[in-house]
């Protein structure tokens, strides 16, 4: 099969769905290829930050969006050694929604897909996995994908690689990232939730536990030192359950529910960035350009901001029937690169300070300087709220 579009977006995550929807909103013919059949995967993070909520408000969809089930977090509070400290306060942000909305990401992506479907020039192909790039004289001219109906060639004036931190597109394009080694991995599992539970959002100690309220269950991210999963497995499930219960005593009565390692997903964390986000005919955005760790929960919003900048800068060229040239693509990178680098540096700083370095490490025994500074200087929380909530260079939807 062969198809043609002005723009082929690879990856229907936050970056790809937002970029595809915004380009189609400007009348650009877009095909988004998503390798999965649906958005129902659990490892993506649930945070919708004030900057993203503001973008949805600018699009005129905020009331509809907020009618989806979500919880609001106006401050981020972390607990270490029994002491709470508010790390970020969003309440003074001058935006319509000064809080983080916790909403399962499949709902966010379904919402964007529903809105995008209303634009006639938008197509989302699910179960379509990009495998190769099509090229002509060094220029990327499309994508080859595996679909349930066989191979598909999509020819396009522009390919956007938004296929995440294990990007096939950037690998096939020969774009090589520079990597940092974040000191942690994440174990991702669920425990039942009861209305009376009092569980801190972030609990430091032996490991670090982040608990996200998903109504009838807690979605839990347990941070461990990088590559320590095998050691933990050898120690056995009872040891793991005890570590979880020690961090969240309110859940002690149900940690027995973790009765098989199969229920515990091991997610490796990666932080890297491309020195160059583009080559002729191709642009990478989101995690494909700069893989983000979960620290601060900012990767989704950075991906969305990249998508907005891409649509703002490239849709004028595409709607004129032009093909973005090297300078157009470089403009997107130069607009977004600094934000990505500063945010990654911030994430690595948090990881160094707040997360354990080996399995025996108890972070509450050496309360990090960052933690002490936030206790002593409350205005820092508003600064952190601005940085985490809005990002380094907040984008706006072009008129
Ligand atoms: C354990 C963990 C927890 C995290 N928690 C949070 C959090 O709470 N908040 C937060 O803001 N950030 C979090 N992050 C970071 C965040 O997940 C990423 O920064 C963000 O998802 C990047 O969005 P993206 O659209 O660029 O890529 P992704 O979300 O990775 O989306 C890429 C999409 O491309 C699709 N795809 C991949 N390959 C192909 C292919 N060959 N063909 C077609 N489709 C393809 C994938 O199926 C996926 O849908 C977390 C990261 C990790 C590792």
Describe this structure in words.
With 399 residues, the chain is of the alpha+beta class. Helices cover 33% and strands 28% of the residues. The chain folds into two domains: 2-180 and 270-390, FAD/NAD(P)-binding domain; 184-268. The protein is built from eleven helices and 20 strands. Strands 1, 2, 8, 9, 10, 11, 19 and 20 form an eight-stranded mixed sheet that branches. Strands 6-5-14-15-16-13-17 form a seven-stranded mixed sheet. Strands 3-7-4 form a three-stranded antiparallel sheet. The longest helix is centred in the last third of the chain and has 29 residues, at 326-354. The structure holds flavin-adenine dinucleotide. The site of flavin-adenine dinucleotide (FAD) has 37 residues, from helix 1, strand 9 and helix 8.
């Amino acid at each position: 099969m062969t198809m043609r579009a002005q723009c082929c977006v690879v990856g229907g995550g936050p970056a790809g769905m937002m970029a595809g929807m915004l380009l189609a909103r400007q009348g650009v013919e877009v095909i988004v290829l998503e390798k999965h059949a649906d958005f129902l995967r659990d490892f993506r993070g649930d945070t919708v930050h004030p900057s993203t909520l503001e973008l949805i408000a600018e699009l005129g969809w905020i009331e509809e969006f907020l009618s989806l089930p979500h919880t609001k977090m106006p401050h981020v509070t972390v607990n270490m050694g029994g002491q709470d400290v508010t790390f970020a306060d969003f309440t003074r942000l001058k935006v319509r929604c000064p809080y983080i909305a916790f909403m399962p990401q499949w709902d966010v992506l379904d919402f964007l897909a529903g809105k995008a479907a209303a634009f006639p020039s938008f197509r989302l192909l699910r179960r379509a996995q990009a495998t190769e790039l099509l090229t002509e004289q060094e220029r990327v001219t499309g994508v080859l994908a595996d679909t349930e109906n066989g191979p598909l060639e999509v020819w396009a004036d522009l390919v956007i690689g938004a296929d995440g931190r294990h990007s096939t597109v950037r690998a096939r394009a020969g774009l090589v990232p520079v990597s940092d080694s974040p000191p942690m991995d994440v174990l991702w599992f669920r425990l039942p939730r009861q209305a009376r539970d009092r569980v801190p959002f972030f609990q430091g100690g032996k490991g670090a536990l982040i608990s996200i309220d998903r109504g009838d269950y807690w979605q839990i991210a347990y941070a461990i030192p990088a590559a320590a999963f095998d050691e933990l497995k050898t120690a056995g499930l009872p040891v793991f359950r005890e570590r979880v219960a020690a961090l969240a005593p309110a859940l002690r009565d149900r940690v027995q529910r973790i009765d098989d390692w199969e229920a515990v997903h091991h997610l490796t964390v990666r932080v890297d960035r491309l020195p160059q986000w583009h080559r002729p005919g191709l642009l990478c955005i989101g995690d494909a350009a700069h893989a983000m760790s979960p620290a601060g929960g900012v990767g989704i919003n950075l991906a969305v901001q990249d998508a907005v900048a891409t649509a703002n800068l490239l849709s004028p060229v595409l709607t004129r029937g032009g093909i973005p040239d090297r300078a157009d693509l470089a403009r997107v990178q130069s607009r977004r690169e600094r934000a990505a680098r500063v945010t990654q540096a911030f994430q690595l700083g948090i990881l160094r300070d707040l997360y354990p370095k080996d399995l025996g490490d108890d972070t509450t025994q050496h309360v990090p300087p960052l933690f002490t500074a936030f206790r002593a200087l409350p205005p820092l929380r508003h600064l952190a709220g601005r940085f985490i909530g809005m990002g380094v260079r907040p984008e706006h939807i072009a008129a």
